[in-house]
Design goal:
about 375 residues; mainly alpha; binds glycine; Glycosyltransferase; about 55% helix; 12 helices
Length: about 375
C-alpha cells in the first residue's frame, strides 16, 4: 500500500512535468485530439461536449502547484466559455461537462461572480431539457451519431449522470431545490431504465417523449444494442457515485458499486479496457479513457464502502492505474499523456482523447484526498 502510494506520487510528478511543458505548447483553448503528436483545435465557434477538459486540466495543475501560469490559462478558458452561452441552441445536456470543469471550477477556486452567474446560466439550460412525462433529461439535439433526420427528443444517455452535479451545485448555490429535484428525477429514471440486472448499463435509452414509455435501446457508441460500452460503464460508476455524494441516497451508491463490480469482473489483466466488454476478440480495440473514468468513480466509492468492498475496490484501482500507466507517453513526441483512447466502437481509430488526460490527472489528485474541481473543500 505504501509502495503503491509512492508509485502514484511519482506517476503524478511525471504527468505534471509533461503537462507543465504541454501548457506552453498547446495554443488552442479547446484542444481535443492530436495529429502527429500536436493538438489540433476543433472547428471554431462550436462548443463541443469536450471543450471544458483542457480548462479542467489547467485548474487541476493550478491546485497541485499554485503556479500562476495555470491560473492564467484556466481563467482565459473560463471567460471563453461565456461565448458558448450566447449561442445556446448549439448546446445540449453536456453543459455539465463543459461548465463544471471551467466556469464552476473558476467560481469555486477564485470566487469570480461572473463565473458564478455563467454556471447558474448553464444549469438553467440543463434543467430546461427535462422531459416531465419520462422524467429524463434530453441528451442530444438533432444531429448526433445516428440518423441526423431522426428526432432526438426522446433520447437520454448514461453519460448524462456526469452532468447532474451542475444541477446539484446550482441548488446548493441558489438555495432553490428545483435543480436538485430534476437531477434526482433523472438519476432515478437512469437507475431504473439504464442499469441492467448484471450491473451493466445501456448507453442510450429512447423514450416516447409524449408518454414517457421506453421504446428503444440503440447501440450508440458501443458494439451493439444490449452490449456494454466501457466508457458508458465508467460514466455510470462515476456519475452515480457523485449523485450519492450530493444526495446521500443509498440506492445511488449501491448502483455505482454494482456497476463497478461488473466492470472489474470483465476487465482483462492488463488493466486496459476494451471499447466494449461485448466486442469480438479481434480487432482488439481499447479505450484508455474508460479506465481512468471508472478509476475516479472507484476512488470515490472506496471512501464510503464497507471494509470488504474496500478491498476489491483497492485491487481494481491498482489494476486501472497500472493499465493507464502502460498507455502513457511521457516524451515530447506527443502533447498528450494518455494514448489509445477510442471515441466509439464503430468508427474512428485509437487516438488521444483530451478527457483521458483530464480523468488521469483527476484520479491522481483524488488519491491525495481531493474530490471534485467544482466543489469547495
Ligand atoms: N460523452 C460522450 C462520450 O463519452 O464520448
Amino acid at each position: 500500500m505504501e509502495n503503491q502510494r509512492q508509485w502514484e506520487e511519482e506517476f503524478l510528478s511525471k504527468v505534471y512535468e509533461k503537462l507543465f511543458w504541454a501548457t506552453d505548447e498547446v495554443s488552442s483553448l479547446k484542444p481535443y485530439t492530436t495529429k502527429d503528436g500536436i493538438y489540433n483545435a476543433p472547428p471554431a465557434g462550436k462548443y463541443h461536449w469536450f471543450c471544458g477538459f483542457w480548462g479542467g486540466i489547467q485548474w487541476w495543475l493550478y491546485k497541485f502547484s499554485k503556479d500562476e501560469k495555470f491560473l492564467k490559462k484556466a481563467k482565459a478558458i473560463s471567460e471563453d466559455m461565456d461565448y458558448g452561452l450566447t449561442d445556446f441552441v448549439q448546446l445540449d445536456h453536456d453543459v455539465g461537462f463543459q461548465y463544471l470543469l471551467t466556469t464552476v471550477a473558476d467560481y469555486e477556486i477564485t470566487g469570480s461572480d461572473r463565473a458564478m452567474v455563467s454556471g447558474i446560466h448553464a444549469a438553467t439550460l440543463l434543467a430546461g431539457r427535462f422531459n416531465l412525462a419520462g422524467r429524463y433529461i434530453r441528451a442530444w439535439n438533432e444531429t448526433k451519431y445516428l440518423n441526423p433526420t431522426e428526432s432526438k427528443t426522446g433520447y437520454a444517455i448514461i453519460d448524462c449522470m456526469m452532468n447532474l452535479p451542475l444541477l446539484f451545485w446550482a441548488s446548493e448555490e441558489t438555495g432553490d431545490p428545483r435543480f436538485r429535484q430534476i437531477a434526482e428525477a433523472h438519476a432515478d429514471t437512469a437507475l431504473r431504465e439504464f442499469i441492467r440486472e448484471d450491473g451493466s448499463s445501456h448507453h442510450i435509452v429512447v423514450f416516447n417523449p409524449e408518454d414517457g414509455s421506453v421504446v428503444d435501446f440503440p447501440a450508440g457508441q458501443g458494439y451493439a444494442s444490449g452490449s456494454s460500452w466501457t466508457r458508458g460503464q465508467g460514466w455510470a460508476i462515476y456519475g452515480f457515485a457523485m449523485a450519492y455524494f450530493y444526495t446521500k441516497k443509498k440506492e445511488y451508491f449501491e448502483t455505482a458499486l454494482k456497476v463497478a463490480k461488473n466492470f472489474l469482473k470483465r476487465m482483462p489483466e492488463t488493466g486496459i479496457p476494451p471499447v466494449d466488454f461485448d466486442q469480438p476478440e479481434e480487432p482488439a480495440e481499447m479505450d484508455s479513457s474508460a479506465g481512468v473514468i471508472a478509476l475516479c468513480g472507484m476512488i470515490d466509492l472506496k471512501k464510503w464502502a464497507s471494509e470488504e468492498d474496500q478491498q476489491w475496490l483497492e485491487e481494481g484501482i491498482c489494476l486501472l492505474f497500472k493499465g493507464a500507466y502502460a498507455n502513457c507517453d511521457f516524451t515530447k513526441d506527443s502533447q498528450a499523456v494518455l494514448q489509445n483512447g477510442k471515441e466509439l466502437y464503430h468508427g474512428g481509430c485509437q487516438k488521444v482523447l483530451i478527457y483521458g488526460d483530464f480523468y488521469l490527472m483527476e484520479a491522481l489528485m483524488k488519491r491525495r484526498g481531493c474530490d471534485y474541481l467544482f466543489h469547495k473543500q
